[in-house]
Hints:
Blueprint: H1 6-28, H2 34-41, H3 45-52, H4 64-79, H5 84-95, H6 98-111
Amino acid sequence: MQETMPQEIEVRYILPAIRRELARIFIQDHKLSQKEAANILGLTEAAISQYQHSKRAKEVVFSDAVVTEIRNSTEKILAEKNNKQRVIAEMYRISNLTKVRQILCDIHRAQSKELESCNICFDEGLVTIRTN
């Protein structure tokens, strides 16, 4: 059986959950329509509807601290509504929060018992990226 990679968990669970929360905050707190939220996030109205009705991305529940960070991101995104790079930057920032990384690891460990003591996602010295 092929082992699931952390990136696959992120794509399947974490990123949709971040989008779900962004959409929820846009609609509930900022009174945007589904259409407006979909346009900002680069999604379809149907996807926004599925997020709102818990038909998509319902497996991940964020802590209040993470929701506060997502709320901060909505402010930055709305300040630059037509800047798609801002949405990408905020999605990236949120997905790299330590608390979000921990959720990813918890899901991964639950799916693979061999990973009970895994700490790859938090081992900063494991990978070196060359910039020159």
